Structure to design on (666 residues):
């Protein structure tokens, strides 16, 4: 569990895209984003107040989050100076970098001396159990995709936001590094040891109030041969009551696999639902989330309309339109 | 890669069952089993020649394999004395124990001093790639089960043996600790990090002669919610040309999951085959392996007959009858 709120470290980001993790935190958990810390030459700007460490501390920030990719995969001396100072000022550090904070002896030594924590969100911090498959109280919704990176995390975050706006009980349950940094907690599923994958998702989505929904962040795709095992573990560990099908209609092949065509939404439905019903016989497919970012407004609306008619299910682009329609579908269950 | 042949260490096994890994090596790779090493009070006997370290060395043994469970999960002083002496005599050590050899400082120190290797087959020794899904040359056969522990490893070993007896090209590809100790190589799939599961199976079953078959050891079951992700990774990483359905007809619920009924063989076929065809559109279900150990001869034959008629596929118990019928089915493809 990463202590919030955050000071978002943008370093010397070469452009706005390099700071997309920080952007995600600011977009989805603005209450966690006290300010931004930028080094000279930083080309990203979240529109947050620029703060030094002392100002952020005074504003209540508890953790400095590295919300930016590092150039060349090295934690530079310029960065390290700030990270050390932050530990000395009483901040914890959290990072999704490939190079781990814990592999930097200087940071480890200072953190220990100052009694602060280093959170590398790519690495599991918990000994997860083996899944027991027992029915849990409360409700769970999982987005499953025709491919990787089609907007599953965005869909779950948007649905969680809409649920909360309606005064309904909802928790976003992160299963990837960006999601974990956004919400401060979660399971880095792609780094969990095989035997414990499903158990980690049971751990992440425990018994809850009967009217509470976990919005579980999806990973991979049953149709993506590199990661389908991870998706399978999410479906069985999450024992979802509701599935959202996620799709990006302009993609021409599976991400990173040029020889693999995308499945149709019908194939995804007919594959995912029977598998989900092994763990939860009452599971239903309730809606479709379509990432229309590559389309103009008219084309996007026509695409959504066609999918909705063809599949007989509500279809929405939660980025373009909000997640109201998808949350309506959950509420109607 | 564990150096063969082996001296099989049975320790102070309280009964024959405790030595089942050693028994598996002796049954399936008798040419790897030079002799057995027993401590006082050992109640297991493989029918191999009892040898001390010097005699085994003279007979060509390269690795001392701990083919027995340890009492109380502790590597005792009596064991350690033998293990240290073995390293000093020039043996490598291989173990499938939960306590790792590498966590015993004395063994690590002696191994280093003597230039010997410690193989803990529960722990991956390779940095596996992420699966790329590319079509590989050669053929692959995978056993998929209605449940865990229904005889998938036995089926693959028996088919591999029958293939070799017919002069056909075949390799048993181990994915679990017993299989790895039997064959000296493999992937401890349940201990591989999620993102690399399918890639580890691609690594294990590389390009090969067009008429060569990999007999891939199955794990878990698509219907076992604790381990289904592991099974999924095997199906997509293995890109099998042939599936064998494995079943234990007397089981009343999924292993360890009292609330979960077993699927029918039809359900297994209809679930596994479309998933397998994502990675290999030519995949076929070619036969059924039935573990009839809990049945008398007449009952077993009637059961096999019924399954064969119902499913329209050859059905055999490879332990009771040999794997001839299943290999015939492969040859007929």
């Amino acid at each position: 569990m990463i202590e919030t709120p955050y000071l978002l470290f943008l370093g010397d980001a070469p452009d706005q895209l390099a700071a997309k993790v920080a952007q995600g935190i600011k977009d989805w958990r603005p209450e966690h984003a006290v300010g931004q810390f930028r080094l000279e030459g930083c080309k990203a700007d979240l529109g947050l107040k620029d703060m030094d460490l002392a100002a952020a501390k005074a504003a209540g920030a508890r953790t400095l989050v590295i919300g930016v990719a590092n150039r060349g995969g090295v934690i530079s001396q310029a960065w390290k100076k700030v990270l050390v100072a932050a530990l000395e000022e009483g901040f914890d550090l959290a990072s999704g970098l490939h190079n781990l904070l814990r592999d930097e002896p200087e940071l480890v030594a200072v953190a220990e001396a100052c009694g602060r924590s280093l959170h590398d969100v790519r690495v599991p911090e918990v000994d997860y159990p083996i899944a027991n498959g027992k029915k849990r109280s409360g409700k769970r919704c999982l987005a499953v995709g025709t491919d990787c990176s089609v907007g599953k995390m965005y869909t779950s975050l948007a649905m969680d936001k809409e649920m909360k706006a309606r005064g309904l009980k909802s928790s976003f349950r992160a299963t990837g590094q960006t999601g974990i940094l956004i919400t401060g907690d979660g399971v880095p599923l792609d780094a969990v040891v095989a035997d414990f994958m499903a158990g980690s998702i049971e751990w992440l989505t425990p018994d809850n109030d009967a009217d509470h929904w976990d919005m579980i962040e999806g990973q991979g795709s049953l149709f993506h041969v590199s990661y389908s095992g991870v998706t399978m573990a999410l479906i069985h560990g999450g024992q979802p009551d509701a599935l959202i099908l996620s799709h990006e209609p302009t993609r021409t092949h599976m991400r990173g696999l040029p020889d693999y065509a995308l499945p149709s939404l019908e194939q995804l439905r007919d594959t995912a639902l029977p598998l989900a019903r092994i763990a939860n016989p009452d599971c239903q497919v309730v809606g479709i989330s379509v990432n229309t970012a590559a389309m103009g407004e008219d084309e996007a609306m026509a695409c959504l309309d066609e999918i909705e008619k063809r599949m007989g299910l509500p279809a929405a682009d939660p980025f373009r339109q909000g997640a109201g329609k998808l949350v309506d579908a959950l509420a109607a269950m």
